[in-house]
Design a protein that fits this description.
This protein is mainly alpha-helical. It has 2 domains: 363 residues, no CATH class; 90 residues. 61% of the residues lie in helices and 5% in strands. The N and C termini lie far apart (82 Å).
Length: 466
Protein backbone atom coordinates (compact mmCIF):
# COMPACT_ATOMS: atom_id res chain seq x y z
CA UNK A 1 0.00 0.00 0.00
CA UNK A 2 1.54 3.29 -1.10
CA UNK A 3 2.08 6.20 1.27
CA UNK A 4 -0.31 8.42 -0.67
CA UNK A 5 -3.09 5.81 -0.54
CA UNK A 6 -2.56 5.37 3.21
CA UNK A 7 -2.91 9.10 3.77
CA UNK A 8 -6.08 9.27 1.69
CA UNK A 9 -7.63 6.34 3.55
CA UNK A 10 -6.68 7.77 6.94
CA UNK A 11 -8.12 11.13 5.91
CA UNK A 12 -11.39 9.44 4.89
CA UNK A 13 -11.56 7.58 8.21
CA UNK A 14 -10.99 10.81 10.11
CA UNK A 15 -13.62 12.54 7.97
CA UNK A 16 -16.18 9.81 8.75
CA UNK A 17 -15.22 9.95 12.44
CA UNK A 18 -15.74 13.70 12.43
CA UNK A 19 -19.10 13.43 10.66
CA UNK A 20 -20.64 10.92 13.08
CA UNK A 21 -19.39 12.92 16.09
CA UNK A 22 -21.00 16.16 14.92
CA UNK A 23 -24.46 14.79 15.65
CA UNK A 24 -25.96 16.89 18.44
CA UNK A 25 -22.92 19.16 18.50
CA UNK A 26 -25.08 22.21 19.33
CA UNK A 27 -26.98 20.46 22.13
CA UNK A 28 -26.74 22.08 25.54
CA UNK A 29 -25.12 19.93 28.20
CA UNK A 30 -28.47 18.35 29.02
CA UNK A 31 -28.41 15.15 26.99
CA UNK A 32 -27.17 11.82 28.38
CA UNK A 33 -24.59 12.24 31.17
CA UNK A 34 -25.87 15.81 31.65
CA UNK A 35 -24.81 15.74 35.29
CA UNK A 36 -21.15 14.98 34.55
CA UNK A 37 -21.01 17.31 31.55
CA UNK A 38 -22.45 20.23 33.50
CA UNK A 39 -20.01 19.52 36.33
CA UNK A 40 -17.07 19.70 33.91
CA UNK A 41 -18.32 22.99 32.49
CA UNK A 42 -19.02 24.35 35.99
CA UNK A 43 -15.41 23.70 36.98
CA UNK A 44 -14.34 25.66 33.90
CA UNK A 45 -16.70 28.51 34.78
CA UNK A 46 -15.11 28.88 38.22
CA UNK A 47 -11.70 29.18 36.57
CA UNK A 48 -12.65 32.27 34.59
CA UNK A 49 -10.63 35.23 35.79
CA UNK A 50 -8.31 32.96 37.78
CA UNK A 51 -6.36 31.18 35.04
CA UNK A 52 -3.01 32.37 36.40
CA UNK A 53 -3.78 31.52 40.05
CA UNK A 54 -1.61 28.41 40.05
CA UNK A 55 -1.96 25.92 41.72
CA UNK A 56 -5.29 26.91 43.31
CA UNK A 57 -7.00 27.15 39.91
CA UNK A 58 -6.50 23.38 39.53
CA UNK A 59 -8.54 22.57 42.63
CA UNK A 60 -12.00 21.78 41.14
CA UNK A 61 -15.01 23.72 42.41
CA UNK A 62 -18.71 22.95 41.94
CA UNK A 63 -21.85 24.95 42.69
CA UNK A 64 -23.25 22.49 45.23
CA UNK A 65 -23.80 21.82 48.15
CA UNK A 66 -23.35 25.13 50.00
CA UNK A 67 -23.82 28.87 49.88
CA UNK A 68 -20.48 29.22 48.08
CA UNK A 69 -18.77 27.04 45.44
CA UNK A 70 -17.44 23.87 47.04
CA UNK A 71 -14.01 22.36 46.47
CA UNK A 72 -14.29 18.74 45.34
CA UNK A 73 -12.01 15.74 44.86
CA UNK A 74 -12.02 15.01 41.13
CA UNK A 75 -9.54 14.36 38.34
CA UNK A 76 -7.03 17.02 37.30
CA UNK A 77 -9.11 19.61 35.38
CA UNK A 78 -7.19 19.69 32.09
CA UNK A 79 -10.34 19.98 29.94
CA UNK A 80 -12.01 22.61 32.18
CA UNK A 81 -8.84 24.72 32.06
CA UNK A 82 -8.67 24.43 28.26
CA UNK A 83 -12.37 25.31 28.09
CA UNK A 84 -11.92 28.31 30.40
CA UNK A 85 -9.08 29.60 28.20
CA UNK A 86 -11.31 29.21 25.13
CA UNK A 87 -14.20 31.04 26.81
CA UNK A 88 -11.83 33.83 27.82
CA UNK A 89 -10.84 34.32 24.18
CA UNK A 90 -14.12 33.67 22.36
CA UNK A 91 -16.91 33.95 24.93
CA UNK A 92 -19.02 31.38 26.74
CA UNK A 93 -20.82 28.73 24.68
CA UNK A 94 -21.39 25.02 25.27
CA UNK A 95 -20.30 24.14 21.76
CA UNK A 96 -16.66 24.92 22.56
CA UNK A 97 -16.50 22.04 25.01
CA UNK A 98 -18.00 19.67 22.47
CA UNK A 99 -15.66 20.83 19.72
CA UNK A 100 -12.60 20.27 21.91
CA UNK A 101 -13.84 16.75 22.69
CA UNK A 102 -14.35 16.01 18.98
CA UNK A 103 -10.82 17.21 18.21
CA UNK A 104 -9.40 15.04 21.00
CA UNK A 105 -11.42 12.08 19.71
CA UNK A 106 -9.94 12.51 16.23
CA UNK A 107 -6.48 12.64 17.81
CA UNK A 108 -7.33 9.31 19.46
CA UNK A 109 -8.34 7.81 16.10
CA UNK A 110 -5.00 8.93 14.67
CA UNK A 111 -3.18 7.46 17.68
CA UNK A 112 -4.91 4.10 17.28
CA UNK A 113 -3.90 4.06 13.62
CA UNK A 114 -0.31 4.77 14.59
CA UNK A 115 -0.33 2.16 17.36
CA UNK A 116 -1.88 -0.51 15.12
CA UNK A 117 0.60 0.35 12.35
CA UNK A 118 3.58 -0.05 14.65
CA UNK A 119 2.28 -3.15 16.45
CA UNK A 120 1.05 -4.99 13.37
CA UNK A 121 0.87 -3.59 9.81
CA UNK A 122 -0.18 -0.45 7.99
CA UNK A 123 -3.42 -2.14 7.00
CA UNK A 124 -4.12 -3.20 10.59
CA UNK A 125 -3.57 0.39 11.72
CA UNK A 126 -6.12 1.70 9.24
CA UNK A 127 -8.66 -0.96 10.18
CA UNK A 128 -8.16 -0.31 13.91
CA UNK A 129 -8.77 3.39 13.32
CA UNK A 130 -11.88 2.63 11.27
CA UNK A 131 -13.29 0.25 13.90
CA UNK A 132 -12.69 2.71 16.73
CA UNK A 133 -14.18 5.56 14.72
CA UNK A 134 -17.43 3.63 14.20
CA UNK A 135 -18.03 1.94 17.56
CA UNK A 136 -21.20 3.42 19.15
CA UNK A 137 -19.59 4.17 22.52
CA UNK A 138 -16.60 5.81 20.85
CA UNK A 139 -18.94 7.98 18.80
CA UNK A 140 -21.02 9.29 21.68
CA UNK A 141 -18.17 9.73 24.15
CA UNK A 142 -16.12 11.41 21.45
CA UNK A 143 -18.30 14.55 21.71
CA UNK A 144 -19.16 14.87 25.40
CA UNK A 145 -17.85 17.58 27.71
CA UNK A 146 -16.22 15.07 30.02
CA UNK A 147 -12.60 14.01 30.74
CA UNK A 148 -12.86 10.81 28.67
CA UNK A 149 -11.83 12.21 25.24
CA UNK A 150 -8.68 13.85 26.62
CA UNK A 151 -7.71 10.85 28.72
CA UNK A 152 -8.17 8.56 25.71
CA UNK A 153 -6.09 10.73 23.40
CA UNK A 154 -3.19 11.10 25.81
CA UNK A 155 -3.08 7.45 26.88
CA UNK A 156 -3.08 6.10 23.32
CA UNK A 157 -0.33 8.45 22.21
CA UNK A 158 1.63 7.58 25.37
CA UNK A 159 1.60 3.94 24.20
CA UNK A 160 2.65 5.02 20.71
CA UNK A 161 5.55 7.02 22.13
CA UNK A 162 6.83 4.28 24.44
CA UNK A 163 6.82 1.80 21.54
CA UNK A 164 8.55 4.38 19.35
CA UNK A 165 11.18 4.87 22.05
CA UNK A 166 11.77 1.13 22.23
CA UNK A 167 12.56 1.01 18.53
CA UNK A 168 14.55 4.26 18.27
CA UNK A 169 16.06 4.54 21.79
CA UNK A 170 16.00 8.33 21.61
CA UNK A 171 17.15 9.70 24.96
CA UNK A 172 14.23 12.10 25.38
CA UNK A 173 11.59 9.64 24.20
CA UNK A 174 11.12 7.77 27.47
CA UNK A 175 10.42 10.84 29.59
CA UNK A 176 8.10 12.34 26.97
CA UNK A 177 6.11 9.09 26.93
CA UNK A 178 6.08 9.14 30.74
CA UNK A 179 4.76 12.70 30.93
CA UNK A 180 1.98 11.88 28.50
CA UNK A 181 0.95 8.76 30.42
CA UNK A 182 1.00 10.73 33.69
CA UNK A 183 -1.27 13.31 32.07
CA UNK A 184 -3.69 10.59 30.97
CA UNK A 185 -3.89 9.17 34.52
CA UNK A 186 -4.37 12.66 35.93
CA UNK A 187 -7.14 13.33 33.41
CA UNK A 188 -8.96 10.08 34.27
CA UNK A 189 -7.84 7.62 36.92
CA UNK A 190 -8.95 4.39 35.09
CA UNK A 191 -6.24 5.09 32.50
CA UNK A 192 -3.87 3.72 35.15
CA UNK A 193 -4.71 0.30 33.70
CA UNK A 194 -2.52 1.17 30.70
CA UNK A 195 0.59 1.75 32.80
CA UNK A 196 1.49 -1.99 32.99
CA UNK A 197 0.79 -2.26 29.25
CA UNK A 198 3.24 0.57 28.61
CA UNK A 199 5.85 -1.19 30.75
CA UNK A 200 5.45 -4.36 28.69
CA UNK A 201 5.62 -2.47 25.41
CA UNK A 202 8.68 -0.47 26.37
CA UNK A 203 10.76 -2.72 28.61
CA UNK A 204 9.84 -6.39 28.14
CA UNK A 205 11.83 -8.61 28.21
CA UNK A 206 13.60 -6.86 31.07
CA UNK A 207 17.39 -6.70 31.14
CA UNK A 208 19.99 -4.82 33.15
CA UNK A 209 20.21 -1.93 30.68
CA UNK A 210 16.47 -1.31 30.81
CA UNK A 211 16.06 -1.36 34.59
CA UNK A 212 17.20 2.23 35.12
CA UNK A 213 14.99 3.45 32.27
CA UNK A 214 12.01 1.53 33.66
CA UNK A 215 12.46 3.01 37.13
CA UNK A 216 12.80 6.50 35.72
CA UNK A 217 9.77 6.07 33.48
CA UNK A 218 7.69 4.72 36.38
CA UNK A 219 8.62 7.68 38.59
CA UNK A 220 7.63 10.14 35.86
CA UNK A 221 4.29 8.38 35.34
CA UNK A 222 3.26 7.76 38.94
CA UNK A 223 4.57 10.69 40.95
CA UNK A 224 2.40 13.51 39.46
CA UNK A 225 -0.90 11.59 39.95
CA UNK A 226 0.10 10.57 43.48
CA UNK A 227 0.99 14.15 44.45
CA UNK A 228 -2.13 15.65 42.87
CA UNK A 229 -4.66 13.16 44.22
CA UNK A 230 -3.18 13.42 47.73
CA UNK A 231 -3.20 17.23 47.52
CA UNK A 232 -6.81 17.48 46.38
CA UNK A 233 -7.92 14.75 48.83
CA UNK A 234 -6.71 16.71 51.86
CA UNK A 235 -7.92 20.05 50.50
CA UNK A 236 -11.62 19.16 50.42
CA UNK A 237 -14.25 18.15 52.97
CA UNK A 238 -14.99 14.47 53.49
CA UNK A 239 -18.42 14.87 51.84
CA UNK A 240 -16.74 16.21 48.68
CA UNK A 241 -14.20 13.41 48.23
CA UNK A 242 -15.86 12.03 45.11
CA UNK A 243 -13.00 9.90 43.72
CA UNK A 244 -12.39 8.26 47.09
CA UNK A 245 -16.12 7.82 47.55
CA UNK A 246 -16.47 5.96 44.25
CA UNK A 247 -13.56 3.67 45.06
CA UNK A 248 -14.75 2.85 48.57
CA UNK A 249 -18.51 3.08 48.24
CA UNK A 250 -19.15 1.69 44.77
CA UNK A 251 -16.20 -0.61 44.10
CA UNK A 252 -14.66 -1.91 47.33
CA UNK A 253 -17.71 -2.25 49.58
CA UNK A 254 -20.44 -2.73 46.97
CA UNK A 255 -22.06 -6.16 47.18
CA UNK A 256 -24.29 -6.25 44.08
CA UNK A 257 -23.07 -7.19 40.62
CA UNK A 258 -25.34 -6.38 37.68
CA UNK A 259 -23.92 -8.71 35.04
CA UNK A 260 -27.08 -8.62 32.94
CA UNK A 261 -27.00 -4.84 32.54
CA UNK A 262 -23.24 -4.86 32.00
CA UNK A 263 -23.54 -7.50 29.27
CA UNK A 264 -26.28 -5.52 27.54
CA UNK A 265 -24.22 -2.32 27.74
CA UNK A 266 -21.13 -4.00 26.28
CA UNK A 267 -23.04 -5.55 23.38
CA UNK A 268 -24.72 -2.26 22.50
CA UNK A 269 -21.66 -0.08 22.95
CA UNK A 270 -19.17 -2.31 21.11
CA UNK A 271 -21.58 -4.23 18.79
CA UNK A 272 -21.67 -8.02 18.48
CA UNK A 273 -19.53 -8.04 15.34
CA UNK A 274 -16.67 -6.10 16.93
CA UNK A 275 -16.80 -8.34 20.00
CA UNK A 276 -16.62 -11.40 17.73
CA UNK A 277 -13.73 -9.92 15.76
CA UNK A 278 -11.91 -9.05 19.00
CA UNK A 279 -12.25 -12.66 20.12
CA UNK A 280 -10.86 -13.89 16.80
CA UNK A 281 -8.01 -11.39 17.08
CA UNK A 282 -7.24 -12.63 20.60
CA UNK A 283 -7.10 -16.23 19.37
CA UNK A 284 -4.81 -15.23 16.55
CA UNK A 285 -2.60 -13.38 19.02
CA UNK A 286 -2.34 -16.46 21.24
CA UNK A 287 -1.42 -18.88 18.47
CA UNK A 288 0.78 -16.68 16.29
CA UNK A 289 4.05 -15.09 17.35
CA UNK A 290 4.08 -11.31 17.61
CA UNK A 291 6.53 -8.87 19.23
CA UNK A 292 3.63 -7.27 21.12
CA UNK A 293 1.91 -10.50 22.14
CA UNK A 294 2.86 -10.34 25.84
CA UNK A 295 1.89 -6.67 26.11
CA UNK A 296 -1.50 -7.21 24.50
CA UNK A 297 -2.19 -10.34 26.54
CA UNK A 298 -1.37 -8.36 29.66
CA UNK A 299 -3.76 -5.66 28.42
CA UNK A 300 -6.49 -8.28 27.94
CA UNK A 301 -5.93 -9.61 31.45
CA UNK A 302 -6.11 -6.13 32.97
CA UNK A 303 -9.30 -5.36 31.04
CA UNK A 304 -10.96 -8.57 32.26
CA UNK A 305 -10.00 -7.67 35.84
CA UNK A 306 -11.18 -4.07 35.36
CA UNK A 307 -14.56 -5.17 33.99
CA UNK A 308 -15.02 -7.72 36.76
CA UNK A 309 -14.02 -5.41 39.62
CA UNK A 310 -15.08 -1.93 38.48
CA UNK A 311 -17.60 -2.18 35.64
CA UNK A 312 -19.62 -4.97 37.24
CA UNK A 313 -20.10 -2.82 40.32
CA UNK A 314 -20.70 0.36 38.31
CA UNK A 315 -22.43 -0.75 35.07
CA UNK A 316 -22.37 2.72 33.49
CA UNK A 317 -21.28 2.72 29.87
CA UNK A 318 -18.65 5.46 30.16
CA UNK A 319 -16.58 3.21 32.44
CA UNK A 320 -16.10 1.00 29.37
CA UNK A 321 -14.53 3.78 27.30
CA UNK A 322 -10.92 2.80 28.24
CA UNK A 323 -11.59 -0.69 26.83
CA UNK A 324 -12.51 0.55 23.33
CA UNK A 325 -8.94 0.87 21.94
CA UNK A 326 -8.09 -2.73 22.82
CA UNK A 327 -11.25 -4.00 21.10
CA UNK A 328 -10.38 -1.96 18.01
CA UNK A 329 -6.79 -3.26 17.88
CA UNK A 330 -7.77 -6.91 18.35
CA UNK A 331 -10.57 -6.58 15.78
CA UNK A 332 -8.12 -5.08 13.30
CA UNK A 333 -5.61 -7.87 13.96
CA UNK A 334 -8.33 -10.39 13.10
CA UNK A 335 -9.20 -8.62 9.85
CA UNK A 336 -5.52 -8.28 9.01
CA UNK A 337 -5.37 -12.04 8.68
CA UNK A 338 -7.61 -11.81 5.61
CA UNK A 339 -5.38 -11.59 2.58
CA UNK A 340 -6.23 -8.96 0.00
CA UNK A 341 -7.18 -5.34 0.53
CA UNK A 342 -10.55 -5.49 -1.30
CA UNK A 343 -11.74 -8.33 0.96
CA UNK A 344 -10.71 -6.36 4.04
CA UNK A 345 -12.52 -3.23 2.95
CA UNK A 346 -15.57 -5.32 2.09
CA UNK A 347 -15.42 -6.79 5.59
CA UNK A 348 -15.49 -3.35 7.18
CA UNK A 349 -18.42 -2.27 4.99
CA UNK A 350 -20.32 -5.43 5.95
CA UNK A 351 -19.61 -4.76 9.63
CA UNK A 352 -21.11 -1.31 9.37
CA UNK A 353 -24.13 -2.65 7.47
CA UNK A 354 -24.77 -5.52 9.87
CA UNK A 355 -24.49 -3.27 12.88
CA UNK A 356 -26.46 -0.33 11.53
CA UNK A 357 -29.27 -1.09 13.97
CA UNK A 358 -26.82 -0.77 16.87
CA UNK A 359 -26.54 2.95 16.26
CA UNK A 360 -30.19 3.39 17.24
CA UNK A 361 -28.91 2.67 20.76
CA UNK A 362 -27.37 6.14 20.68
CA UNK A 363 -30.54 8.02 19.71
CA UNK A 364 -31.93 8.43 23.26
CA UNK A 365 -28.54 9.70 24.40
CA UNK A 366 -28.92 12.85 22.31
CA UNK A 367 -32.33 13.78 23.71
CA UNK A 368 -32.58 16.57 26.27
CA UNK A 369 -35.29 18.36 28.24
CA UNK A 370 -35.94 22.01 27.34
CA UNK A 371 -37.58 22.65 30.74
CA UNK A 372 -34.22 22.57 32.52
CA UNK A 373 -32.90 25.33 30.28
CA UNK A 374 -36.08 27.42 30.47
CA UNK A 375 -36.13 27.29 34.27
CA UNK A 376 -32.46 28.15 34.58
CA UNK A 377 -32.74 31.07 32.15
CA UNK A 378 -35.73 32.44 34.07
CA UNK A 379 -33.78 32.25 37.33
CA UNK A 380 -30.78 33.95 35.77
CA UNK A 381 -32.91 36.84 34.43
CA UNK A 382 -35.31 37.36 37.36
CA UNK A 383 -33.32 36.69 40.52
CA UNK A 384 -30.29 38.25 42.16
CA UNK A 385 -26.86 36.85 41.25
CA UNK A 386 -26.30 36.12 44.94
CA UNK A 387 -29.48 34.03 45.25
CA UNK A 388 -29.23 30.60 46.84
CA UNK A 389 -31.24 27.83 45.19
CA UNK A 390 -32.61 24.63 46.64
CA UNK A 391 -33.25 22.04 43.93
CA UNK A 392 -35.97 19.43 44.39
CA UNK A 393 -33.74 16.56 43.19
CA UNK A 394 -30.03 15.66 42.99
CA UNK A 395 -29.47 16.58 39.31
CA UNK A 396 -27.41 19.82 39.49
CA UNK A 397 -27.47 21.16 35.90
CA UNK A 398 -29.71 24.12 36.89
CA UNK A 399 -26.89 25.56 38.99
CA UNK A 400 -24.64 25.73 35.94
CA UNK A 401 -27.16 27.29 33.55
CA UNK A 402 -28.57 29.72 36.14
CA UNK A 403 -25.07 30.68 37.35
CA UNK A 404 -26.17 30.16 40.93
CA UNK A 405 -25.12 28.04 43.91
CA UNK A 406 -27.17 26.16 46.46
CA UNK A 407 -28.38 22.83 47.75
CA UNK A 408 -30.18 19.72 46.50
CA UNK A 409 -32.78 17.45 48.04
CA UNK A 410 -32.28 13.73 47.89
CA UNK A 411 -34.87 11.12 48.88
CA UNK A 412 -37.58 12.57 51.14
CA UNK A 413 -39.63 10.34 53.42
CA UNK A 414 -43.44 10.35 53.27
CA UNK A 415 -43.74 11.65 56.83
CA UNK A 416 -41.41 14.61 56.29
CA UNK A 417 -43.09 18.04 56.33
CA UNK A 418 -41.71 19.89 53.25
CA UNK A 419 -41.76 23.37 54.83
CA UNK A 420 -39.80 22.19 57.86
CA UNK A 421 -37.36 20.35 55.60
CA UNK A 422 -36.69 23.47 53.52
CA UNK A 423 -36.15 25.57 56.63
CA UNK A 424 -32.93 23.62 57.15
CA UNK A 425 -31.40 25.27 54.08
CA UNK A 426 -30.41 28.95 53.83
CA UNK A 427 -32.05 29.16 50.42
CA UNK A 428 -33.92 31.92 48.61
CA UNK A 429 -35.79 29.85 46.00
CA UNK A 430 -36.98 26.26 45.72
CA UNK A 431 -36.89 24.80 42.20
CA UNK A 432 -39.28 22.07 41.03
CA UNK A 433 -37.05 20.23 38.57
CA UNK A 434 -38.55 18.40 35.57
CA UNK A 435 -39.36 14.73 36.24
CA UNK A 436 -39.05 15.21 39.97
CA UNK A 437 -39.09 12.06 42.09
CA UNK A 438 -41.37 13.57 44.76
CA UNK A 439 -45.05 12.65 44.84
CA UNK A 440 -47.96 14.98 44.15
CA UNK A 441 -48.80 15.35 47.84
CA UNK A 442 -45.33 16.79 48.41
CA UNK A 443 -45.86 19.38 45.66
CA UNK A 444 -49.35 20.21 46.82
CA UNK A 445 -47.91 21.06 50.23
CA UNK A 446 -45.18 23.18 48.62
CA UNK A 447 -47.73 25.16 46.57
CA UNK A 448 -49.78 25.84 49.71
CA UNK A 449 -46.69 26.94 51.65
CA UNK A 450 -44.81 29.16 49.15
CA UNK A 451 -45.78 31.45 46.25
CA UNK A 452 -44.79 30.25 42.78
CA UNK A 453 -43.09 33.24 41.13
CA UNK A 454 -41.79 31.51 37.99
CA UNK A 455 -41.96 28.16 36.13
CA UNK A 456 -41.63 25.79 39.08
CA UNK A 457 -39.80 28.47 41.13
CA UNK A 458 -41.02 28.99 44.70
CA UNK A 459 -40.00 31.97 46.85
CA UNK A 460 -38.77 30.63 50.20
CA UNK A 461 -38.42 34.12 51.68
CA UNK A 462 -42.16 34.85 51.40
CA UNK A 463 -44.01 31.84 52.85
CA UNK A 464 -47.79 31.93 52.56
CA UNK A 465 -49.68 32.52 55.81
CA UNK A 466 -51.36 29.46 57.31
Amino acid sequence: MGRGIRRVLLFLILLVALGVRLRGITNPLLDDQAWRQADTASIAAHMLGHLTDIPSVFLPQLNYDGITPQRVELEFPFLPYLLACTWTLFGWADIWGRLWSVVLSLITVGGIYELGRKMFTERAGLMAAAIYALMPLAIYYGRVVMPEPMAQAWSIWALVMIWRWRTTQEESGVWKAGVLMAGAILAKLPQLMLFPVALMLGFWPLNRERVAKLVGYSMIVLMPPMVYYLWVHFKVAASSQFVTGILTGQVVTASTLDWKLLSKTIRRGFTDSILLLSGVGLCRLIFFRSPVRMALLAWVGIVVLYIGVVCAHIPLDYYLVPVLPLAALLGAYALDGIKGRPLTMLGIVLLVWINRSSYTYLTPKYQWNQEYLSQARWIERHTSASSILVLSDPAPMTFYYAHRVGFRLTKVGDKVIPSKLLQQFPGDYFVHLPKSSHNELFWETIRKSYPEIGPGIFDLKRPKPN
